[in-house]
Amino acid sequence: MSHPALASYAAQNVAFWIIAIPMAVAAIGVVSMKNIVHAALALVIVLGGVAAQFLLLQAEFIGIVQILIYIGAVVVLFLFGIMLTRAPMRKTGEFDNDQRILAGLVSLLIFGVLASLLSSQFSGDELRLGQPTPTASIADSVFRTYVVGFEVVSMLLLAALVGAIVLARRD
Amino acid sequence: MADKAWLIPLLPALSFFVILFFGKKLPKGGSESGILAVAASFVLAVIVAAQWISDGNIVDQHLTWWSNGRVHITIGQHVDGLTAMMFVVVTFVSLMVHIYSTGYMHGDERFTYFFAALSLFTASMLFMVLADNLLQLMIGWELVGLCSFMLIGHWFEEKNNSSAALKAFFTTKFGDIGLMLGIITMFFAAGQTFHIETINRLALTGGISHGMLLAGALLLFLGVMGKSAQFPLHIWLPDAMAGPTPVSALIHAATMVVAGVYLVARAYGVFWEGFSIGHGGLNWMAFIAGITMIIAAGLAFVQDDIKRVLAYSTVSQLGYMVAALSVGAWTAGVFHLFTHAFFKGLLFLGSGSVIHAVHSNNMSEMGGLKKYMPTTYWTFVIATLALAAIFPFAGFWSKDEIILGAVKNGYPYIVVLGLIGAFMTAAYMGRCVFLTFHGEYRGHGHPHESPRSMSVPLVLMAIPSAFIGLINMPGVEKFTDWVRFEVPGVQAEVVKEHHFNPGLAIFSLAIAVAGLLVSAMVFYWKNAPAKGAWTRVPAFRALNTFLVEKYYLDHIFVDGVVGAIKGPIARAAYWVNQNVIDGVVNAVGVGAKAVGRFTYDVIDQKGVDGVVNGIGIGASETGGVLRLVQSGRVQQYALMLFAAVGLLGLALILFT
Amino acid sequence: MPVTQYLLLSAFLFCTGVYGVLARRNGVLVLMSIELMLNAVNINLVAFSARLSDAAGQVFALFVIAIAAAEVGVGLAIVLLIYRNRVAVNLDEIDLMKG
């Protein structure tokens, strides 16, 4: 029977899955594609998908920030890095090292552990999505409750900026 | 006083030390200390004897010197009639000998040493007599043996003298093996005690099995055979005459040699039960004593040396004493010991006087001394008559009692031998007297009577030789009262005292007189039909040789026993030593070396070092393997990190 | 809608990122994989924030984004330096710390 809330839940579920599947495929692509630029582009898809998920979860501010920072800046940084380090653009089989099998096993192991833990703990929990989170409340949290953390992060960003410049400078 | 009897041996012992340290400085060379001590002991001995006669209480006390569980080593005193008698005898004769020696040993270079030894001897003999336990008795026994050795070899510059001393020592020591084993046997048989009274009591009341008693008695008797010169261990006594005559008088006539007889008398319970003396017939002790009596008397006939005659006579008389004890005539045997001390001591002192005068021991160089040395002559005659058992002198009473005891207790063997021995005793002593004092002087010097220091003791000794026998005369019989074998707490009538038998007494007297007459006849009857028969008839010549050679016993002992030991047995022992013992030792050494080599090569080099090296190599190998983990590659580290996390998570899930 | 599907998605992304960190040879690719992991965490945080209706989860996600950006910057600078020292940026060959 169709309940309006259920209907919206059902819609959100479907939307989730529609976004999650490409994300997953793209994630696998990031770690397995032979062409590095293709891997970077797959990363873009993943990051976009993450932003979409955020929006689905009514976290609008974070979603937008994600798009701005990650897709806007980080991926560009990656592309510049690829260019500057003259990574081979063509398809090569050299991007995977010797321990990929063990790595696969380990990651599967961790996935198994995490999945079982999470599903056993939170199996019955339901998300009640109401209104989108007002940005004002986030701002309140940042500048009231977590203001120290905010300051520290700004310090960190400054340090990272200066450090990156110092490191990469040609002298 | 009797409980202070330990003073009696103590005084001569102190004198020994005084003479040892100060003797040379004393004006009379130490003899005054000796004489004083022995005289004091004599006085004390008389007092003890008087006390015993008056109250008759046995004193038996001891101090425990050392104990360990059940075993107690004690030192003590046992004073009864036998002890008191021995005290009197030993101190008296010793005193006479001391006085005599001041004259006889005058000018001797070891005068002081001689007196020290005399004091030590007297002290040891008295200590032995006083003993209440076998261990103490043995100590005294050994000490007198030591003094005998010292004194026989007094003039040790001559090889003969030192050889004689050694012979005496070894022969008695051989007997002492039996003594020691016997003491050990009795110790265990009597429940781990050395106490003589206890042993006697247990023996007489059936507390010890007959087998043990027989064994103990046989072993102890071996010691007696050695010390009291019974056949076949009598060989040392004649050779011991190499010592100075006072020594012979004191030790080898009156006192030390009777130590064996004393032991039998003291521990009589053991012998009485062990040898079943009460049953008559024959026992081992009687058998040996009988042989001793006769063969020694036989040997006395062919001696030229006057001291040797007396020595064999002593052996024969010791045989009488042991025979008496072996037939159950305890009092007779002890009485004979008592009288014999006086007259034999006197005989020796007299012979010493003669030797001193003519400067020779041999009777062939004497003769006709009657007119030169009247005192010596008459005292010698008194002693001879006493020895030959002529009425009323001392020996008559004592020897007569022995034969009486043998008759009454049913030992015909001893009776016959005793009577034959009496005849022979009279005969050889008669021969001795005639050769020495009668006839013409055959020597070279000018014999003269001895000085007063020597002749006075002779007279003093002659008095008891003559009269002391009378104290046991029928009607008097004081000796039997005073000196008897008794063990407190035992009612057994061990020794049956027999009263005087006039018939037997006259018979034995007649035999003795006959002996004297025969010797007189041989000496005086110049044209006797049998004169010269001794040397002419081959049978007699052979007998003479046999006797002169002392029945070839010395040859048997020296060539037979000693030679066998020196030759084959020593060689066999040497072979065993070289091949067997050395073989074993060498094998052990080689074996030890092989073990050592094995230990070194295998265990140490390979085993231990292998383990140690192995640990080192293992550590470095492990390090080498672990080193590979650090490849320097970050991703590898990351892999390990994540793997660990995953596994920990897994563990978390699975176990919680 | 059930929370678990977000959580599972986040777990999946995280493990993929782990695989990439461990298995990729190029430094830049490793950094990309790290980004994957960080994003997975972000999803988790925001999902729980929605679940618990607490904005704190989103604040943390914000901080994570900021830090991730800083880290990528520095990381790429290091990769550039490696590139200058050796022409290839092959993580396999950087083993100076080899024991």
SSE layout and pairing:
The complex is a heterotrimer of chains A (171), B (656) and C (99).
Chain A: H1 4-32, H2 36-56, H3 60-84, H4 100-122, H5 135-145, H6 147-168
Chain B: H1 7-22, H2 31-55, E1 59-68, E2 71-79, H3 81-104, H4 111-130, H5 134-152, H6 159-189, H7 196-204, H8 210-227, H9 236-239, H10 245-254, H11 259-266, H12 268-274, H13 284-300, H14 306-326, H15 330-358, H16 374-387, H17 394-409, H18 412-437, H19 452-467, H20 478-482, H21 502-524, H22 533-536, H23 538-548, H24 553-627, H25 634-655
Chain C: H1 4-23, H2 27-52, H3 56-85
Helix pairs in contact in C: 1-2, 2-3
Quick summary of this structure?
The complex is a heterotrimer of chains A (171), B (656) and C (99). With 171 residues, chain A is an all-alpha fold.
Care to count the β-strands of chain C?
A: 0
Which structural class should the secondary elements of chain C be placed in? Answer: mainly alpha
Task: Report the order of strands and helices of chain C.
Answer: HHH
Query: Proportion of β residues of chain B?
Result: under 5%
Largest interface: A-C, 90 and 70 residues
What percent of residues of chain C are in strands?
A: under 5%
Number of helices of chain B: 25
Please provide a written account of the structure.
With 171 residues, chain A is an all-alpha fold. Chain A has 6 helices and no strands. The radius of gyration of chain A is 20 Å and the shape is globular. The radius of gyration of chain B is 37 Å and the shape is elongated. Chain C is built from 3 helices and no strands. Chain C starts with a helix and ends in a 14-residue tail after the last helix. At the A-C interface, α1, α2, α3, α4 and α5 of A face α1, α2 and α3 of C.
